[in-house]
Amino acid sequence: MLAPEFLNVLCVDDQASMRSIVRTMLRGWGIRQVKEAGDGLEGLKILTKEDISVIITDWNMPKVNGMKLFKAVTKNPTLNKI
Question: pTM of the full predicted structure?
């Protein structure tokens, strides 16, 4: 397992206030690299460009919801180890 300072977390939520709460919580645990996405579609775009260690996602979002994001990640051989 990576030490917190080496984790790169993707937080996917359609509410900016919730992303802010998650970011604050993660920083309290020593995690400094947090990317944010407003929906699953935006999250998928980030996943193709960034080396992400952990995904924290909301379930109910517009465009691509959390379940569709999860399914897309698990079906993709380059992402399914996240």
Answer: 0.92
